[in-house]
Write a structure and sequence with these properties.
Layout (H helix, E strand, L loop, with lengths): L9 E8 L5 E7 L2 E7 L5 H8 L6 E4 L4 E4 L1 E6 L22 H13 L4 H15 L1 E9 L7 H12 L5 E7 L10 H11 L3 E5 L8 H15 L2 E6 L3 H17 L6 E5 L8 H14 L1 E5 L10 H6 L4 E3 L16 H12 L4 H10 L2 H6 L15 E4 L4 H7 L5 E4 L2 E5 L2 E2 L3
Parallel strand pairs: 1-4, 6-7, 7-8, 8-9, 9-10, 10-11, 11-12, 12-13
Antiparallel strand pairs: 1-2, 2-3, 5-14, 14-15, 15-16, 16-17
The chain binds zinc ion.
Length: 416
């Protein structure tokens, strides 16, 4: 389905409260912000100048609601969720957390699940309903499923491209070196349309950091693709891999195109080691994704931001074989990240919000983002006096606009 925006359509959204507290009128022309003026000051002359080419503008009074850019879902798995399907009780690992065992549970669950396109659609509509209009999804590639997941999710992306922008990561869920044929499948997945190469615990899973990263960065270079690696390894083992990834990123000039997802190790190393890692990540242009996971160490958001690292957020798994949590709401994720980070002050709550908006846009390399002239009019209006209150209260009474048109209200996507 292609973009339907009529270039001559204009809507004036009056009385929008922006994050800086200003009350403004937003003019949207052809799906993009074309003017932002103090409330009540949008000059009629502007309308007249373009009147000959514009269908009579539509006026929408936002009544002083908080208006923020659409949320950024920076890490999700569209192929493996059971959201909207039958409930799958969580199966614990038999002897402590084990990725291989979890992958086996996942294979068993997926064999009995509803069709992938239907499950992906459920999850996607949940995210759009809550205000995310850009998303990065990892999609499993391995010897057992081949490219089936990639093909299914590519079709879903095409189907929803008028509603949400989706980046896909070819994700080697069963490792690369320990799963023969996966490197070739990742290559194929990139040819088919995946935007990034994924990775998985080069040390703990594949037992070969250099070999794993050679494949990942080699494919990224070959295809001009970005990199987004799942790294669960903790402590110094995790830190070592973060440093290796940063070194390669710098050497290859890939600043701004590489992400380490989870990077749990950054959450359980001494402060001086964290300082060093933060400086290295910032200099290399490697971003860190966190979902502030359960009872687990996670990257210190404030310290990394202070060091100049782009830290952004994602839901990660939603009701899948890894855990039963997840609601597809990045505002609620900002709340969780703030809560787990011990953020109380307004500037800290604003930082938690930045993690799910502007920092996410930066990490995903979005060309134009925000409530600025020229950007796509993708935004969310909600009853909150300001961003800190929104992060704490997580109001569900939201209206989500895609290219200036309502696509969701109160957490539910409208019928297309
Ligand atoms: Zn993940």
């Amino acid at each position: 389905m292609r973009e339907q925006t009529n270039l001559s359509e204009q809507t004036i959204f009056s009385n929008a409260k922006l994050a800086d507290g200003s009350l403004v009128d937003l003019t949207v022309t052809g799906g993009r912000f074309s003017a932002i003026a103090p409330a009540g000051k949008t000059p009629p002359a502007d309308f007249a100048a373009v009147a000959s080419t514009i269908i009579a503008p539509v006026f929408v009074d936002l009544g002083g609601q908080l208006v923020v850019p659409a949320l950024v879902e920076g890490h999700i798995h569209l192929d493996t969720s059971f959201y909207g399907d039958a409930w799958r009780p969580h199966i614990p690992c038999t002897n402590g957390f084990d990725v291989r065992e979890r992958v086996a549970f996942q294979a068993r669950n997926l064999a009995a699940a509803a069709p992938m396109a239907e499950r992906a659609k459920n999850q996607l509509e949940l995210c759009v309903g809550n205000g995310s209009l850009t998303m990065r999804s990892h999609v499993m590639v391995d010897g057992s499923v081949g490219l089936k997941h990639v093909e299914a999710i590519l079709a879903v992306r095409e189907n929803y491209r008028d509603l949400i922008d989706i980046q896909l990561v070819a994700f080697p869920q069963s490792g690369i070196l320990s799963s023969p044929g996966t490197a070739e499948l990742l290559d194929e997945a990139l040819k088919l349309g995946c935007d990034l190469v994924g990775g998985l615990d080069p040390a703990n899973f594949d037992r070969d950091v250099k070999g794993h990263l050679d494949v990942v960065f080699g494919l990224a270079q070959k295809h001009g693709a970005g990199v987004d690696i799942h790294l669960h390894d903790g402590g110094t083992l995790g830190l070592f891999q973060v440093e290796e990834i940063a070194t390669r990123t710098k050497a290859l000039g890939m600043a701004g195109h590489v992400v380490v997802s989870h990077a749990y190790g950054l959450g359980d190393i001494p402060a001086d080691a964290l300082d060093k890692a933060g400086a290295m990540l910032a200099a290399a242009g490697v971003a860190i994704m966190t979902n502030a996971p359960g009872n687990h160490a996670f990257p210190p958001v404030a310290a990394l931001r202070q060091a100049g690292v782009t830290v952004f957020g994602g839901s990660d798994n939603i009701r899948d074989s890894w855990w039963p949590y997840g609601d597809g709401d990045m505002l609620s994720r900002a709340n969780m990240i703030g809560y787990r980070s011990g953020f109380y002050e307004d500037h800290e709550l604003e930082a938690a919000f930045d993690v799910v908006t502007h920092a996410g846009a930066k990490a995903l390399g979005l060309a134009s983002y925000g409530i600025v002239v020229g950007a796509s009019a993708d935004f969310v209006a909600m009853p909150a006096q300001h961003v800190p209150e929104a992060v704490v209260a997580v109001p569900k009474e939201r209206t989500v606009y895609r290219r200036g048109k309502v696509v969701a209200r109160n957490g539910t996507m409208l019928a297309r």
